[in-house]
Amino acid sequence: MKIIMLGAPGAGKGTQAKQIAAKYQIPHISTGDIFRANIKNGTELGKKAKEYMDQGLLVPDELTCDLVMDRIGQEDCANGFVLDGFPRTIPQAESLDAALSKIGQKMDFAIDVDVPDSHIVKRMSGRRACLSCGATYHIVAIPPKKEGICDACGKELVLRDDDKPETVQKRLDVYHEQTQPLIDYYKKQGILHSVDGTQPMEDVFANIDAIIGV
Ligand code: AP5
Ligand code: ZN
After folding, report:
1. What total number of domains does the chain contain?
2. What pLDDT shows up at residue 166?
3. What's the whole-number mean pLDDT along residues 33-39?
4. Closest atom of ligand 1 relative to the 68 alpha carbon
5. Where are the alpha helices (DSSP H) in 116-161?
6. What CATH number did the domain enclosing 8 receive?
7. What pLDDT score does 15 carry?
8. What is the whole-number distance in angstroms between the Cα of residue 104 and the centre of ligand 1?
9. pTM exceeding the 0.90 threshold for the entire prediction
10. Burial classification of residue 187, based on how many CB atoms lie within 10 Å of its CB (0-12 exposed, 13-18 middle, 19 or more buried)
11. DSSP code per residue over 73-127
12. Cα→Cα distances 24→28, 85, 183, 192, Å
């Protein structure tokens, strides 16, 4: 099963993608997490990506596409995968389709997690992330057991550099301009499904599960 998670920054793509990956035993591939791991490890890719991410801009397609194509070509992706944060532009979507069609495959589902902008800004200011294992929390909706500490790995939780309110607004603008057109792109392919992302996390997952679990 090959799934794309679409939605504005903070819509809950990552939260849902992790649950899908766990239930269906497929890898969760988050380009944002891959870039953040590279930043943390001080790689060349990380240094380049950080310049764009800190401004709320997209990392250029040429740095992003090869990385994803390499990842989905790995053995653990043979039975499918869930893409979170990719594709984010029409050229990225086209290169994904081209890579899959070469091996006679195509994406199965594009799930749009729909949340209005007004909700997003509130959510982002409450998000706390573990940069060690990628777990995410929300200080009100999904608090960790011990304040500021990751339940999964015991490391410190932080407010992401790009979750400052002024950067969140820029990310929303970029989303509407460059990523939202993908909704029509996948609608035309007949694989788009929308879910209401303002509901509690478990309800959002139940809705997604009803779509993909056929
Ligand atoms: P990325 O890490 O992908 O960020 P994003 O798309 O902006 O998405 P987020 O991770 O911010 O949010 P999310 O939708 O996963 O929400 P989450 O589940 O955490 O990318 C970061 C940057 O990397 C980009 O800005 C760009 O620069 C670069 N980049 C990445 N991919 C790229 C690409 N393909 N091309 C170019 N550049 C790329 O939830 C948010 C919060 O809400 C959490 O606190 C969560 O606990 C809480 N929450 C979730 N669901 C609910 C719910 N139902 N009710 C209440 N709270 C909830
Ligand atoms: Zn952790």
Report:
1. 1
2. 85
3. 94
4. 34
5. 117-126
6. 3.40.50.300
7. 94
8. 30
9. yes
10. middle
11. TSGGGTT-EEEES---SHHHHHHHHHHHHHTT----EEEEEE--HHHHHHHHHHE
12. 10, 19, 24, 19
pLDDT beyond 90 at 161: no
Q: How far is the CA of 204 from the centre of ligand 1 (A)?
A: 15
**12 CA to middle of ligand 1, Å?**
6
Q: Which residues line ligand 1 (CB under 6 A)?
A: 7, 9-15, 31-32, 35, 52-53, 57-59, 64, 85-86, 88, 92, 123, 126-127, 136-138, 141-142, 162, 171, 197, 200-201, 204
Catalytic residues: 13, 88, 127, 160, 171
113-150 confidence digits (pLDDT tens): 999 998 998 888 899 999 899 899 999 989 999 999 99
CB atoms within 10 A of CB 126: 16
Please check whether residue 88 lies inside any domain of the structure: yes
Distance CA 168, CA 166 (A): 5
Among 59, 69, 70, 175, the mutation site with the greatest number of ligand 1 atoms within 8 A of its Cβ is 59
Range of the domain at 52: 2-116+175-212
Determine how many CB atoms are found less than 10 A away from the CB of residue 48. 16
Asked if residue 182 is part of any domain, the answer here is yes
- What is the distance between the alpha carbons of residues 141 and 17, in angstroms, rounded to a whole number? 17
